[in-house]
């Protein structure tokens, strides 16, 4: 049986992927956070990606494939720690993969790397510029991670390496800034703005990761969900009340809610509820035959 290593195994996406691939793979998972009550089909090791013990796992286990999910995606800690884990951890992981004969690497990025800008075209392709650092520097580390992985992809052509960029992901297990925002009892929107947003269910992202492994993908791929809707429609479908707020006041409200940790939606992310950041997922569909199982109604029901 082939061996698979999943980083960030204790998070929602890691648990779903382990279950999805449990019958065809011998799975080892690593995470800084323990997975209490982990199923027998996963060998979970609680350790830090940045420590030597992680390299020892690769040296001893010699996985055929690695799925990299171990990113800090929230904003509760310092930017320095986030950068160290995301960029430094990815660099160390890639170096270890090359050193210990890993044949395949899949990295879960995000469609956020394109940034939300007023001039964005609808449905950006994978070769569109990564502009997130222009107005959302808090997550510029994701663009840096993609730079590392892209360099790795061309430096080691013998290793099938892929980057997946899913759109806004919602679901029971996955916690995200957009999920926290849409989960508010009263959701503030910015007066005069109602951008189109794409959503995908967490289990469809899991299926996309599994397909990337099974098809031995190489390259960068957007992963779109079942469709796009205006932000206000999404709020209505989730069953939340909405309040339209002038931009300066909206910025103040969001800043204060973030400061008091009411939810993890930093002020710099406000452009994502003003401007579009939609992607074309046709290349991934063509490469894998991917078809979302969950409709937009299903996606919204998962957080209602």
Key terms for this structure?
single chain; 304 residues; alpha/beta; seven-stranded parallel sheet; three-stranded mixed sheet; 37% helix; 20% strand; globular
Structure description:
This protein is α/β, with parallel strands linked by helices. It has 11 helices and 12 strands. It has helices at residues 12-20, 52-61, 79-99, 132-135, 140-155, 177-182, 202-214, 231-238, 247-259, 282-288, 296-301; strands at residues 2-7, 25-31, 42-46, 65-68, 104-108, 160-166, 168-170, 186-190, 196-201, 219-223, 227-230, 241-245. The protein has a 7-stranded parallel β-sheet with strand order 3-2-1-4-5-6-10, sandwiched between helices. The chain has a 3-stranded mixed β-sheet with strand order 7-9-11. Helix 1 (12-20) packs across helix 7 (202-214). It starts with a strand and ends with a helix. The mean pLDDT is 91.
SSE layout and pairings?
Blueprint: E1 2-7, H1 12-20, E2 25-31, E3 42-46, H2 52-61, E4 65-68, H3 79-99, E5 104-108, H4 132-135, H5 140-155, E6 160-166, E7 168-170, H6 177-182, E8 186-190, E9 196-201, H7 202-214, E10 219-223, E11 227-230, H8 231-238, E12 241-245, H9 247-259, H10 282-288, H11 296-301
Parallel strand pairs: 1-2, 1-4, 2-3, 4-5, 5-6, 6-10, 7-9, 8-12
Antiparallel strand pairs: 9-11
Helix pairs in contact: 1-7, 2-3, 3-5
